[in-house]
Amino acid sequence: DCQMLLNQLKEITGIQDSAFLHAALKAANGDLMEAVTFLTEEHAQEPAKDAAAAEPSAWEGSAVGKRFPHSKSIFSAPPLGTVPIALETGFYSTVCIFCDRPPEGHSAENKNRPKRKRCEVWGENPKQNDWRRVGDWPVGMKNIGNTCWFSAVIQSLFQLPEFRRLVLGYSLPQNVLESCRSRTGKRNIAFMQELQCLFALMLGTRRRFVDPSAALELLRDAFRSAEEQQQDVSEFTHKLLDWLEDTFQLAVNVRSPRDKSENPMVQLFYGTFLTEGVHEGNPFSKIETFGQYPLQVNGYRNLNECLEGAMVEGEMDEATASQSVKYGQERWFTKLPPVLTFELSRFEFNQSLGQPEKIHTRLEFPQTIYMDRYLYCSKELVQMKREETKRLKEKMGMLQQKLESYMKYGSGPARFPLPDMLQYVLEFIATKPAAVSPSSQGSQTTLLQSQAKPSTLDGLPEPTGLLERKDARTEDAAFFLANPSPQPESSTPLQPSEAAERPAPHVVSAEELTLVRACLQRWRSEIEQDMQDLKESITRIGLSIEQMYCDPLLQQVPYRLHAVLVHEGQANAGHYWAYIYDQPRKSWLKYNDISVTESSWEELERDSFGGLRNASAYCLMYISDKLSRRVAGEDDSSRLGPFQKEVDALPPELQHYVQEDNWRLEQEAEEWEEEQSCKIPQMEPSPASESQDLSSESG
Q1: Which one of 148, 197, 306, 619 is the catalytic residue?
Q2: What pTM does this model have?
Q3: Where is the composition biased (Low complexity) (predicted)?
Q4: Is 2 known to be catalytic?
Q5: How many domains does the chain have?
């Protein structure tokens, strides 16, 4: 439990020093939120091992400050506080609070305080691997206070070479920069330039992780303002892409004013779909644009079922060849973007509790999805497949009902499998009555003989009930004669076989036993065969439904899974990370804040499908097969590292920005090594003394 709390503190606060977090947790008596408050609002000084790597501030001396000199005065951010953010909840929102650094005088401290020496940041950590990048391994991103969502989104976008090139190659003519007067336009340009600096560092830095504070501060500043209230995490992603789209539109307007079709963001991320249907008896059709396509998760087993449910609402008219819609509507994609993003809504509002809840049900998704069955150009073939699927599902439903009647047989409230019931009857008739002891048998014979008197009625048959009662009385009499006085001390205790006798028929002739046994065995065999046939038919129909769209004509437009954004937690709190497919390495990597580790499809399944624990995917990013092959071809043809070619192609100011940051890293390393060499050598403390020191420091 303690380790779990420490991990949550690391994710929320961005502080990585375990001893420091342990002390804060102990001071808060194990209360997580109190520890967060202590760490974020009490000006706690962290002896962090993994602190911010980008110094000085992103505005001072950066490429942004040089290319957009007035940005600093125009976009001076208000003090950091708490920003309400909610997770994606469909029609509802739920609040997740940012726990940031102390708000008082934060901006002034960043601008006026002297630059902190790296020896103050690295603490006592002598391992360079903890703060240096290894080769061309992708870099992580620092969590500066509940900003894991930003890291997951930006890493997923950065690992798209096409998007990366668009951002790094963005430029505006000087006259456009000077003529931009609106606050929104200047903010968007400033954000683009901060994103360029961040991407440049992610390409060429020698640090193990980068600090996104400057770009994040612009986002937060906008979401704090009264006119731009945003409440859920998906809205942050939408707003981020909207800003980039508006920024690219400024460049497009130079050539083609107000022509959004030329906007590279629109071309990369946006598609169109046609909606056809009937509303109040009137047919209609309309074309709409989409970016991130929302999908409801609840009630579906896999991604294709989700898409089918989103594309079809209502029922089809089987009487016409055109398969026209009786009521409801159908959607068909008319244009798919190279980057296809699905938002999975895993939250619903609980009316009884009055709060949103996360849906933890399992939802599977493939590494390759074929989009042909959702395209307008495949409409006729797909509608035929849908009708056939509908017919097969109806037939399978009837077979399942029949199988259910065998499995739950009976007319009363309790139902049992019919083959088992027949088997029980077969066991009953084959059971022999319990054996009677010789003495009891002799006494019973004497009693019967003494009571036997000739009568004219002896030859007449007696009703079954009378016979049963007579037999019972006879047996009772025999029992009491055999045991004239109830003396517990002299009576023989019952044997186990006598105490737990199985029910058995009183009298069964050999002919009756043979006949009934043959009938029951035959009936049971027939029923079992019928049930087996039903199960096989249901399996065959299910397989036909699963393979309905495996037609080669519907496998011409494949999309490959590029990234999976995962949320772990409940509706009102949690942590985000991303799994991204690394094309050069042909493997999945896990991007979890500053940590970037090699992963596998099996680990991705466990964390993303849901159903096992509180972690599940909330966003899926697919890329077209054409784009995927282009990326693979570029990586195979490059003799340099995956990023080195792009670093060499950076604009001069961004190259200088990266070189300056790497030079500063070396200076910080020298300062740290110098301080370490000046320290007086001390004996290695024992584990016991370390725990005592920690306890005293916590106190």
Answers
A1: 148
A2: 0.68
A3: 439-451
A4: no
A5: 1
